[in-house]
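I'd like us to work through together how a protein chain folds, taking it slowly. To get us started, please write out a protein record for me. Go ahead whenever you are ready, and we will take it from there:
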Amino acid sequence: MRKRIRGSLLGALKASGIFDSVGGSRWRQRRLLILCYHSLALDEENLWRPANFLTPIRLRERFEILKQNGYSVLPLGEALERLRRNDLAPRSVVLTFDDGTYDFYKLTYPLLREYGLPATVYQTTYYCDRQMPVYSLICSYMLWKRREIVLRAAPSIGIVSDISLGAPEARQTAISQIIAFAERKKLSTEQKNEVAAELAQRLDVDYQELLRKRVLQLMTSGEIAELADAGIGFELHTHRHRMPRDQELFAREIQDNRNAIESITKIRPTHFCYPSGDYDLMFLPWLAEQGVISATTCDPGLASVQSRPLLLPRFIDTTGRTALEFESWLTGVGALLSAGASATSLRNLSRS
């Protein structure tokens, strides 16, 4: 009900010209929209986690909206410098992609090249040259794919009793047991992959096919180097996709991540994205000590000159976002409504 009401309001605001007038206002020109994407589906990942995966068709639709409405899509570093100087082009936008999974190389980059759009990948690096999927994710995905069955007890992979996989809570129980088993046994990455392969066998999932498609795998060093040479920016996202609350461990995550990216791209990364949007104010001085000059969150909003450089907002685009909602955020109307602006205040702002 709430979504329908919001959709009706957005439709009315667009029809009345508010989208165009706010999008063309001086208020919008002084603000930067940083768009956040994660991955495109190589298999059925968009059905498994619609908040993280889109289809290539949906991303093409978004790029068409950017193209047809004349948005200025800028590289991250340039956009932030122009924001600081109050020198942004009208309707400025930045495209960011978290994690750096193989689908970016296979599906996203060809679309970016076709539309001539710059983009930044916040690249996690631990799995880059390990030709295997991220352990916890691939196990969770396979459990979802076989959600109609009962997984029988399997002590060799940590499943202590039969689990009917129909409910999300049951699948969470299964993945928790599998992860706890690997931690308890102190399994290596390679041994975890063997556990995932055994889980696939017990679920009757074709694990070799998932490996062939490179579902939930990261880009390799060679693929990252190729895209960096083509102009894609690669920035920090931690080495192991985690945010330790211990300063020494935190610093190691940044340093390992930076060393890996710099060795591949020959460019020193200085921008950062909090994995899964997990941030704490204690991180800000730690990031500054590591020479990080900007950090993006998953908090919705438009960045302005008043925004804290290490707590920049982004708009996360997902399968559940309508084209109308996407356009509302491009223009700035969506951000204003989320902040509590009224239709009257939008009309007044649009005249500025």
